Amino acid sequence: MSLNDKSVVVTGGASGIGLEVCKRLLESDAKGVAIIDILENVDGIGQLRSTYPEKNILFIKADVADKTAIDEAYEEITKSFEYLDIVVNVAGIFNDLDVSRTIGVNIGGIINSTFAAMNYMSKEKGGRGGIIANMSSVVGLDPLFLMPVYTSTKQAIVGFTRSLANEIYFEKAGIKFIILCPGATITQLFTNFTEKIIFPDMGDVAYRVLDRLHKQSPADVSKCILSAIEQCENGSIWIIENKQLHPIKMTRYWTSIEEKFAFFKMNFLFRSLLQPSALQAVNRFVRSGNDLMSSMRNLSYYVKFGCPCSQMKKMLKQSADRIPKGPKDCKRDLIKISAPKKVIKPSDVDVYKKAVPRYGLSSSADIKLIQKWQKRMNKRINRPKKALKLRGSNAAITGGFGSIGKAACISMLERGIASLGILDIRENKSLLEALRRRYPEKQIYYQPIDVTNRYSVAEAFNVVGDKVKNLDVFINSSGVLCDGCPEKTIGVNLLGTVYTTLAAMERMGRHNGGKGGTIVNIASVLGLVPCNAFAIYSSSKHGQVGFTRSLADDFYFKRTGVKLMLVCPGMTNTDLTQDPEGSTTFPYAAILGRHLVTAESQSAEICAENMVRAMEKNKNGSVWILDVGKYYEVRPVQYWIPVYNESNNSPDGVKNVN
What we know:
By secondary structure, this protein is α/β, with parallel strands linked by helices. The chain has 25 helices and 18 strands.
């Protein structure tokens, strides 16, 4: 996409990376630039206006976390610009001590600016389409233990933007979405960094790690950003590291709604191509909920059908046009036949040998860095696990009166826990009394809680502390699905998870007089893969995944003795899924919501039982998918390896501080 004669909006454009992006845009003959920022850099903006007097340079002071202010800002911008062509959302902060503000600016600001821009850019509303580039970070791809709250917001941005990069949305609005993930960059983010981390006493650790990271300048990052915009591939993700731009492809951990829909198309094709025995095998495979599309690429799968790969390839090419209309990727994936590939584990050295050179490290340091980083990761993955014994333990759960929460309560009580605290915003007296009658020897109590209010969370955990001497297990089950109200969805699902998890760690941690314990955060498979129908919900669940994985680092476990686990249910029959069409991000996404009805689901009781079984594995940092009555662990792929300064290129830098 050419930047010539384009009108651009840059949030956070008054300083740092945002200001450098504005300079590059104007150098590239952009027609005009509108800057939205809460801080007015008089000198920086004045210099832009003096350097480019013929350009339309507009500054609007606004807080991106304030939806009303952003809507008004875009309304004012459209009075000066006839069309909006490009939006670059750069605004962001780091302050893990101020959880609400960090989430509000980093993900709330992205959502507010994106939706406001779409109102004026969408072809459906009289615009001419364009590009929206949302800035995440490399920690939005791989968590960094130093900044769990910041990491959660950046992973939320990745989930949100990927969810919007959908063909249906593009056909309606004509807007492409890209994700920018810079590595460590010299900006105000690092100012007083050690004073903004969640545990102030780890300031020395933070300084030693940050000091070893290779850092790039905002000017270098801005150059890569414009290159990514010019390539303008919808849904693309770009790592900006060591002054270079690297595109990446995300791994799929779960069969998406679109792929399930595509199964019916493939089934149609196989009915006309395969023998009855093969057709039965395909049908069994589809019903099992496995990823048929991935297995079809394996040559051995075709051999099982007694059909040589060359013959299958020929038949598929001849019959591709017979597939009914559906997802565009369906036909492409069907005719791409390849030999079986080696299964590569996350700990494989080959993965790092391929990854390291693209970040520009010297060859003499490559092998040492690979071996040290691999050793640290393997140590965490392969540490002997001690099974969690629930009998006689004390447990608490938020959202305990919900579908999965209620079933989890019963499952834990059946395993002999001594006490159960149910924390929920509203009391279900009939259920509470039923549990007490069924388990009279157990201590079962209720405490009201608003997970979006940190004072309410603190009060609830004080009550838990009064009820039991030690809290052994805490489950985060609160959640809502309401994309029409982003503030509520992000607040309950992400902000609530952060508040309650940190409160539970303080109550359970050895550093604070506790005995340690286990925290289980319930996310969703939509926190591992994007969901076009529910972009806000998917964003909040991506944030939960990033936050939990950050806190599951060895550094925190050695300090607190608290293990963190993540469970990701698939399609489950709960109150959240009763009205999928009415909860979508946009009205015209209702067709995507309706696909949920066709997906194979599981009951809340089975989901909860499998969650407790996974919890009993007691594996710190583990991620479990609970889908179609089964549970299994997934190991997220590592997309980014920290680049250290060559003068201090000790790859065990993180290891040493642990």
